[in-house]
Design goal:
Two copies of one chain form a homodimer.
Chain A: H1 7-25, H2 30-37, H3 41-53, E1 57-62, E2 72-76, E3 82-88, E4 92-99, E5 104-111, H4 117-134, E6 142-149, E7 152-153, E8 159-162, E9 167-170, H5 172-180, E10 184-188, H6 189-200, E11 209-214, E12 218-224, E13 227-229, H7 259-263, H8 265-274, H9 285-294, H10 298-322, E14 326-330, H11 337-351, H12 354-357, E15 361-364, H13 371-387
Parallel strand pairs in A: 3-6, 6-10, 11-14, 14-15
Antiparallel strand pairs in A: 1-2, 3-4, 4-5, 7-8, 8-9, 11-12, 12-13
Helix pairs in contact in A: 1-3, 2-3, 6-13, 8-10, 9-10, 10-11
Chain A binds a DNA duplex through residues 4-8, 10-11, 14, 29-31, 39-46, 65-72.
Chain lengths: 392, 392
DNA sequence: AAACTTTGTTTATTGACTAGACAAACTAAG
DNA sequence: CTTAGTTTGTCTAGTCAATAAACAAAGTTT
C-alpha cells in the first residue's frame, strides 16, 4: 500500500519538481517554472527561496525581457556537491569524480594484477582516497560513492557472485559505508552501463532501452518504462545465458548454447586462437585482431563477421522480446564496431520483426568505456537530489 | 514531466487509497482504515461519507467490539457496476460479464467457423448484446468492454496484425466505442492473460511474473515491477519469435529457429502427424494426443516430453532474463500439464541459473482458459475505479 | 511622459488534513 | 446495577501549503 498524501509531502514533492525543472532547463526564470509546472507563481517563488537557501540553485544575471520586466534566471548549482563513481573491472579500476550534473572533474585508472580481494580493496580505496582529495570545497561535499561490479548483486547491494573476479558473498557496500561514512551504491556493471547511457548517452529521453555489455561475458542492462529493470532478486538481465543454440556449446553456468559462448570477446579470442591469428601470449588480443582486420586480413574479418552475426541473433531476440526504442552495444566489443556492425545489422534487418524495427535505433556506445561510471554517478546523484539531506 | 500536487489532487488520491483499502480488506471499519492508511480518522470519516454517497461502498451490520464501541463495517459494492470481457480466439469467442470484483456473473461461448471480419464482428456483437441484457440493474451499469485479441495491438488499441485471424489494421476499439458508447479496451491475449493471472491467479501479490500463452503460437505477457510491460509501441513479449536454435526451422516471421516452431500446439501437431499418430482430419488433435498418452502410447508420451523440453528451454531463457517470482503456462498447451511438466521442469532445474531458481514458482494456469477474460475484466474495472465518473 | 506588459513579492483566501474535544456505544470491574 | 474505562465515529478549531488577487518593480512601446 502506498503512502497517503498530506501538506508536508505535497510541498516536498512540488519542491522536487521545481528543482528537476531547474536542472533540466537551466537557466530558467520563476515565471517560466510556473508556466512549465502549472504551479502558482507565488508557490514557485517561495519554493525557489528555500532552494536558494539550501544552496542547491543560484540566481544568475538577468534574462532577456519578453516585453516587460527582465526575469532573474536561476541556475542549478552543479558544484553544490560531488559524486565518486567506480568501474571495478577484472584487469583495472576506473574511478571518476563528477559534479552533480555528471561532468567528470577528475579521474584515475589503475591496473590490477590480481583479483585477490584484499589487494583489490587496497587499490580501490587508494583510487577513492585520491578522488576525495581532488574534490573541490562545496556545500554538500561528497554525496555518495557508486561502484559498478561485474557480477550478481542482491537488492541489498551485496555481491553474491562475481565469477570473473573469483569473488563470492562480499558485502562491499557495508564495508565501504563503514570506512567512508558516506552513502554507497553497488550495482552490476551492465545495469550501471544501461543507466549511464540512459542519463548521459542520448539527446532525447528514452523510455525503453537495452544496453548490451559485451566483454569477457555478456551482461544486459534493461531500461523498461523509464526505469532500470532488476527483477525479483536484482538478478535480471542475464541474457548472456540465453540459449541461442539448443544442445550447443556447454557453458560454465550449466546451460548449453548460451549467447555469450558465441558472441563475446572471449568467444572471438577462442576462435582467433584456433585460427592461429593469435597465440596464448598475445597481449591485448582484441586490438591485435582489430589491427589485423584493418590491415585487410580476411580471416580476422571473417571472424568479426561471425561474431557480428551472433551478436545480431541475440539482439534480434532482444528486439522481439522488449520492443525497445534503442539498443546500445558497449564494453570491449564496441571497439570493433567497424567490423561487427555490417553482419550484426544484416542479421537484425533480416530477422527481427518488422514492426519492432520501425522506430528502433541500434548503436554502439558513445560513452567509450565510461558508461558504467556515468551510471554509478547518476545513481548516487539522483539518490542525493531525491533525499537532499540538510545542509551541514 | 509529471503533474504537480494541489489540494484537489490530494483529496482524490487519498479517496482512491481509502477505496482500495476497502476493496482489498472488505469488510473493514473506519478506524481500521485510518490505522491501515495513516490518514486521520476524521479524514477517513469524511472520505467514506463521500464514497457512500457515490454508492461504491456500503455499510454492513456492526462488527465485533474489541473492548469499546462496536465498529460499523464497510463493504465494497461489487455490484455497483459490471464489466464485459471478451477473449476473441481463432475458433471461438468467449465472453463474460463480471462484477467490479471480477466475479463472473454470466458467460457465453460461441464457435466461429470463419475469421472473416464481418462475420466475426456479427457474432462478437451478438455475444456482447447478450451479456449487456444479462447485466443486473446497478448504479453505474456497464463500465467498459475489454477485448483480448491474438495479435499485435498498438498503444492506441488498434489491431495492426492478427495473423491467425488473417486481420490487418483494424480499429476495433473505435468501432466498438462508436456502437456501444462505452469505454473499450483492446489488448493482446497474452498480455491480458498475464494481467488476469496477476490479479486473480494467486493468493499473494506478485511483482514480477511471466505468463507464457502456448497455443497455436507462443505469446508472452510480462508483469515487471508490478506492471504489464508493453514496450515502446506496445509490441513487447514476442518470445515466440525468440531464436533458440540458430539456423533452425524457418518461421513465417522471417527468422529461423523461433521458440514457437518447437514448443507450440502447432509444433506438437506437426510432429504427431509425421509420427502418424493423427491425420489431417483428426478433430481436436491435442485431446487425441493427451488421450493417447493417458492410455500409455509411448510415441505420444515421447512427443510430449520433446515439447516439454523445448518449453523448458524457452522458460529457462525467461528465468535468466527476467529473474521473475512466478512463471505461469496457459492457453491450450496447459491442458497437457501432466505430460509436459516432467521434461519441462527437468530442463529448467538443470539449466536455469541457480540463484534465479531460489524463490521461483513455475506453474500451470489455474484459471482454465479464462486468464484472458479475467485480464480484460481487470483492465476495464481498474480504469473505471481510477476515474470513477459521476453517478448518473 | 504615460500606458502597457512582464516578472516577482506580499497578503488574504481556500481547502484538505490533523489534533483534540465530544458523543455514542460498548466491556469490565466493583 | 452502577461506574469507570475503552473503542469507534462525529464535530470543531487549527495548521499548512497552494491559489487568487493585489501590489511593487522594472522593463518596453506608443
Amino acid at each position: 500500500m502506498h503512502q497517503t498524501w498530506n501538506q508536508h509531502i505535497i510541498k516536498k514533492e512540488n519542491k522536487t519538481i521545481v528543482l528537476e525543472t531547474i536542472i533540466n532547463r537551466t537557466p530558467i526564470s520563476r515565471a517560466a517554472i510556473a508556466q512549465q509546472t502549472g504551479l502558482n507563481k507565488s508557490t514557485v517563488s517561495s519554493l525557489v527561496q528555500e532552494l536558494l537557501g539550501e544552496k542547491i540553485i543560484e540566481e544568475s544575471g538577468p534574462g532577456e525581457s519578453s516585453g516587460g520586466r527582465r526575469p532573474v534566471m536561476l541556475l542549478f548549482n552543479q558544484s553544490a556537491g560531488f559524486s565518486i563513481a567506480i568501474d571495478l573491472r577484472v584487469h583495472d579500476i576506473l574511478g571518476v569524480l563528477t559534479d552533480l550534473e555528471g561532468n567528470i572533474v577528475h579521474e584515475q585508472r589503475v591496473l590490477i594484477e590480481t583479483t585477490n580481494f584484499n589487494q583489490v580493496m587496497k587499490r580501490l580505496m587508494e583510487v577513492i582516497d585520491t578522488l576525495i582529495k581532488a574534490a573541490p570545497t562545496s556545500p554538500y561535499g561528497i554525496v555518495g560513492i557508486g561502484i559498478g561490479v561485474p557480477g550478481v548483486i542482491s537488492n541489498e547491494g551485496e555481491i553474491l557472485l562475481a565469477p570473473n573476479l573469483g569473488w563470492k558473498r562480499i558485502d562491499l557496500k557495508a564495508h565501504m559505508e563503514q570506512h567512508y561514512h558516506l552513502p554507497v551504491v553497488i550495482e552490476n556493471e551492465a545495469n550501471a552501463g544501461a543507466y549511464g547511457e540512459k542519463v548521459f548517452g542520448f539527446e532525447e529521453a528514452v523510455d525503453h532501452m537495452i544496453y548490451a555489455s559485451i566483454g569477457a561475458g555478456i551482461g544486459v542492462g534493461l531500461i523498461l518504462d523509464n526505469k532500470l529493470y532488476k527483477g525479483m532478486q536484482g538478478f535480471s538481465g542475464e541474457l548472456g545465458h540465453m540459449t541461442i543454440e539448443k544442445d550447443g556449446i556447454p557453458c560454465r553456468c550449466g546451460n548449453k548454447g548460451c549467447w555469450e559462448r558465441y558472441a563475446s570477446e572471449q568467444a572471438l579470442i577462442k576462435q582467433a586462437y584456433e585460427a592461429k591469428l593469435i597465440d596464448q601470449n598475445t597481449n591485448d588480443p582484441l586490438h591485435v585482431l582489430i589491427d589485423l582486420a584493418n590491415s585487410g586480413d580476411e580471416t580476422a574479418i571473417a571472424l568479426f563477421n561471425t561474431i557480428g552475426t551472433y551478436i545480431g541473433i541475440g539482439l534480434t531476440n532482444c528486439i522481439n522480446i522488449f520492443n525497445p526504442r534503442m539498443i546500445v552495444i558497449g564494453n570491449q566489443m564496441a571497439k570493433a564496431e567497424k567490423w561487427i556492425r555490417p553482419a550484426m545489422e544484416h542479421m537484425i534487418e533480416e530477422h527481427a520483426i518488422g514492426f519492432h524495427q520501425e522506430q528502433l535505433n541500434v548503436q554502439f556506445s558513445s560513452l567509450n568505456m565510461y558508461s558504467t561510471v556515468y551510471g554509478m554517478s547518476a545513481f548516487t546523484m539522483e539518490q542525493f537530489l531525491q533525499e537532499r539531506p540538510l545542509l551541514e
